[in-house]
UniProtKB/TrEMBL annotation:
It comes from Pseudacidovorax intermedius. This is Membrane protein. It comes from the Bacteria. The chain crosses the membrane at residues 7-27, 33-53, 65-85, 91-111, 123-143, 149-170. PANTHER family: PROTEIN HDED (PTHR34989). Signal peptide: none annotated. Keywords: Membrane, Transmembrane, Transmembrane helix. GO terms for cellular component: plasma membrane. InterPro entries: Acid_resist_chaperone_HdeD, DUF308_memb. The keyword DNA-binding does not apply.
Length: 176
């Protein structure tokens, strides 16, 4: 636990970024799909960079947390794709976001299981990973959702995910 406590801020930054993105998506559901792609791309890129930093800084048996590093690489790649090709269709965007959420959620759950004896509050990481998987599956099962419904779904997910990441961050901080 003490190896992770000094790095609680990276978890908190991811949580704050997710909450801010979620509030924007919920408050402005009428955004065009192109703007939504850019907003999501920026969020995925920022989250990916923060996850990369956390994965390399946080150590397990002297090694970086590779599941978190892979999650960061996935986020950076998804963000770049969204920013480079903002004109992609809503259906493609939904499929990319759905796949990103499922894979990212699985990595988070794997990381939490691996670290369950070393940190307290890993339930928040497991729950945020499970939420991510469920969110991704919902998008993959019904990709034809409208832009407003998509904005609300993405915003609700990001808000809940961010709150769970903040809970985890402050539990890790408290353990210091």
């Amino acid at each position: 636990m003490q190896a992770f406590a000094p790095h609680w801020g990276w978890l908190a930054l991811r949580g704050v970024a997710a909450v801010l993105f979620g509030v924007l998506a919920l408050a402005l559901p009428g955004l065009t799909v192109a703007v939504m792609v850019l907003l999501w791309g920026a969020y995925a890129l920022v989250d990916g960079v923060f996850a990369l930093m956390a994965g390399f800084k946080m150590r397990h048996e002297g090694r970086p947390l590779w599941a978190v590093v892979l999650l960061g690489l996935l986020g950076v790649a998804a963000g770049i794709v969204a920013l480079v090709w903002p004109g992609m269709t809503a259906l493609t965007l939904v499929m990319v976001i759905g796949a990103w959420a499922v894979v990212g959620g699985v990595f988070q759950i794997a990381t939490a299981i691996r670290l369950r004896r070393e940190i307290e509050g890993e339930w928040a990481y497991v729950l945020s990973g499970a939420l991510s998987v469920l969110f991704g599956l919902a998008l993959l099962v019904a990709p034809g959702a409208g832009a407003v419904a998509m904005a609300w779904l993405i915003g609700g997910f990001a808000l809940a995910y961010g709150v769970l990441m903040l809970v985890l961050a402050f539990r890790v901080r408290k353990a210091r």
